[in-house]
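ok here's Two-component system LytT family response regulator:
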Amino acid sequence: MESPEHISAIIVDDESHARQALKTLLNAHPNIQVLAECENGISAVKAVNDLNPQVMFLDINMPKLDGFDVLELLGDTAPLTVFITAHNDYAIQAFEKNAVDYLLKPVNKDRLLQSVERIAQRVAHETPAQYQAQQQSAAQQMNQPGAPIQRILVRDKGDVYVIATKDITAIEAADDYVVIHTPEASHIKQERLSKLEDQLDSQQFCRIHRSTLINLDFLQGIETEAKETRFAVMKSDNNNPKQYAISRSGYSKLIELL
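and the structure:
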């Protein structure tokens, strides 16, 4: 199969000089067409959705949304990804077999040539489904086990919401989705409640029912209506505090944490 004549790309980096330097180097490769430059992860997600690039040159260390957060939000819509980092640390080892390539800053033109050649080979010989599967695997490997997550990312059409876990009052299951509640709003995310439970701080979030996780920091009290009919009453800024049913096993877990 012949190499593609044109490969569409976006550059994602929070530093303008880094974006410009990489674009200048890429201009020496006529088969790479840079469609957009993104200064943060949110604009990167929007650019992928709007422009559908074939490759993304993605900085790892960025504020608010880092490169791994961007992959999480994109899921199976992520294009081929070349990671860019200033640090020769665990990211290189973790992505060595999954990403198309990784580049160390400052990017060397000869090293970039190798990366462009790899990109061309992948675009020519792999279907979109194949390289999307590669990116999903890469994103999963970069999700550090053990430490509780501090934020949850939600994509709603073209909008991206970053929800701090400390601001979540409760999370309810709805089939393969969850509804994440905060004092200000509710957001729907395609995720299993059990997976979020494993990722959240077990000392802060309690599974009080098979379909409900609550943040203990927002627990106002427990109401009992019958012998084993209990409800968790959550703090609210209005006069209508939200209540969630507590199962028998959920009550046992709740008492252990309180």
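+1. The chain has two domains: 7-142, 151-257.
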